[in-house]
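Design request, tokens follow.
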């Protein structure tokens, strides 16, 4: 009887210990069946860029929610193609996710004769996390206070004024060319290496006009050194509700939403994609995260993969005629 009792007790203890071990292992397993080890979050632009900002804000919370370390890596170059290519060619197992924008995810295929990857085949767009309005700005010294006044000045002096962009083929370049086409004006393009140098050109008097992401210009607007005239969005931005749209000034179909989307390599397991999407939606619904993004003039989107693909397709078709009409090429 005693022998049976002790055998039974040993079996119960072994079962209990096994259950504890299983529970412990399960608690340490990252949600969504991500592989063990750090997840690389690749950003195809430099530190401080809008994709980098969104990557770091979201990745920090994603790491806490999943128990999986997230390491942000900046791989800038080739108008975003370098880093986006690294994402496209990474193992499709959840060990690499990326934060990219419309350029390297679609528009760049219109600008480069040869791309190192096929975005439609090699990448899966999980969600557009947030968007930021592009703002039409001029130096205060130009003496204009509205889009109408700027267009009138440009028409009176065709080809006299120049505009700064973040680089050839960038959204700031395409948006200004679209504005010139839609308003029947001509203006000279001067590309710079990013939004910082473009803003410096405005402040120094080397540039007369620019269409740049809100986060890069609003500090100078608030300081009274640059004048914000309008946003290049379909409707007024919640981040800058006081600014009219270009459409309100009669310049239609110039939409330059600077959105940032999370992507993964194609063929990443559905379970991981769905888990990542669910986590992104939950994180972006958090008021604290929304407040952080609002400080960067970013509006939360958190759409579905299908909705994100539709936005990208619309962007590509919007910029195609502008690129073809102006013969814009980057190689």
């Amino acid at each position: 009887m005693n022998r049976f009792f002790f055998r039974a007790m040993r079996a119960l203890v072994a079962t209990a210990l096994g259950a504890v071990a299983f529970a412990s292992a399960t608690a340490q397993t990252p949600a969504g069946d991500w592989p063990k080890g750090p997840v690389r979050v690749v950003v195809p632009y430099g530190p401080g860029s809008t994709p980098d900002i969104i990557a770091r804000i979201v990745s920090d919370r994603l790491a806490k929610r999943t128990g999986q370390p997230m390491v942000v890596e900046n791989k800038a170059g080739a108008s975003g193609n370098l880093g986006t290519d690294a994402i496209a060619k990474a193992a499709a197992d959840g060990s690499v996710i990326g934060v990219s924008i419309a350029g390297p995810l679609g528009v760049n295929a219109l600008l480069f004769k040869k791309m190192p990857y096929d975005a439609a085949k090699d990448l899966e767009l999980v969600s557009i996390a947030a968007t930021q309005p592009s703002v039409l700005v001029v130096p205060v010294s130009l003496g204009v206070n509205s889009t109408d006044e700027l267009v009138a000045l440009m028409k009176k002096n065709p080809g006299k004024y120049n505009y700064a962009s973040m680089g050839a083929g960038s959204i700031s370049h395409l948006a200004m060319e679209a504005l010139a086409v839609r308003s029947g004006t001509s203006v000279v393009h001067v590309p710079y290496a990013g939004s910082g140098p473009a803003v410096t050109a405005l402040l120094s008097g080397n540039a007369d006009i620019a269409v740049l992401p809100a986060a890069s210009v609003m500090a100078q607007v608030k300081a009274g050194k640059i004048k914000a005239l309008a946003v290049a969005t379909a409707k007024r931005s919640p981040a800058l509700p006081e600014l009219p749209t270009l459409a309100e000034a009669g310049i239609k179909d110039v939409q330059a939403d600077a959105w940032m989307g999370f992507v993964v390599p194609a063929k990443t397991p559905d379970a991981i994609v769905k888990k990542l999407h669910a986590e992104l939606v939950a994180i972006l619904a958090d008021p604290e995260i929304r407040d952080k993004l609002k400080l960067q003039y970013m509006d939360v989107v958190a759409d579905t993969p299908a909705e994100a693909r539709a936005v990208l397709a619309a962007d590509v078709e919007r910029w195609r005629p502008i690129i073809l009409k102006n013969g814009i090429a980057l190689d």
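Comment from the thread starter after seeing the answer: thanks! The mean pLDDT is 89.
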